[in-house]
Amino acid sequence: MAGLKTLFYEKMTDLSNMMTNPLSTSKFLEEGVLTPEEFVAAGDLLVLKTPSWTWQPGNPKMLQKGLPKDKHYIVIKNVPSSMRISALESRSALSENREIEDGEWIATHINESALSEEAEDIPEIPTTNEKRDTNSDDDNIPEIDLDSLTVGDAENEDEGTLRNTNIVRTRTYDLSICYDQYHQTPRLWLFGYDENGKALTPEQVLEDISQEHVNKTVTIASHPHTGIPQAYIHPCKHALVMKKIIGRMVDSGKTPRVDQYLFLFLKFLHAAIPTIER
């Protein structure tokens, strides 16, 4: 039954991405979502600051409105994953979650000071108008854990700090970020390789996912542009988490910039995939 539900969901979102008009009015501050133009701007900044990320063209059969043909998703390859989630959890390296009254997860400490101060010369993104569908029936999917999130210098982490140069042979992952028009947020995909360069099975990939998120936040499906089955982080809660982070930055007197979105996005998703040394 779960497999049929996932298949139905994928078909529904694929149709939405191809047939509906994308969001055209910026709702970044109010709702934590992106227009396609804002996604491109955020991707451009990520590629500029961390050149190991690169833009890729879209599948001609899956092109989305509002995205340039040559900028449909962003890829980084050979990201190391040296430890399985079971070993990481046994060493108590994962922070304990604190549940608030409404059943959602929230960070107890976030340093938002640097993101709004850096890269001041990068222009903001012009936007226009359109309504967003906010309905979701995925209430059983847990929030991404924000407890150990530190936002501070996310944009300024260079390629050397994002990539471990350890020569020990480890699992590696190719990560890609697409724009999900249905949820109006990015969607992160993962494709893994073992120590010998052989593709990981879906079951092996789940060994690197936080147990709280396995089969809830993380699903296996065909990548929309490569057609290869991959794991992805379910996007239905992304806007809510981003809205919380943005709100905290505003409360601390900072002005979040929409083109810094993907740095924040990758920071909070690390809670679901803590073994991947992004």
Automatic annotation (TrEMBL):
Q: Where in the cell is it found?
A: Cytoplasm
* Predominant cellular place of this UniProt entry's protein: cytoplasm
GO BP terms: namely:
autophagosome assembly; autophagy of mitochondrion; glycophagy; nucleophagy; protein transport
**Tagged with keyword NADP:** no
The record's InterPro entries line, in alphabetical order, gives: Atg3/Atg10
Task: One GO cellular component term, please give it.
Answer: cytosol
Molecular-function GO terms, alphabetical:
Atg8-family ligase activity
Instruction: Keywords in alphabetical order, please.
Output: Autophagy, Cytoplasm, Protein transport, Transport, Ubl conjugation pathway
The domain of life for this entry's organism is Eukaryota
Q: Which family does it belong to?
A: Belongs to the ATG3 family.
**Protein's name in the database:** Uncharacterized protein
Annotated source species: Planoprotostelium fungivorum
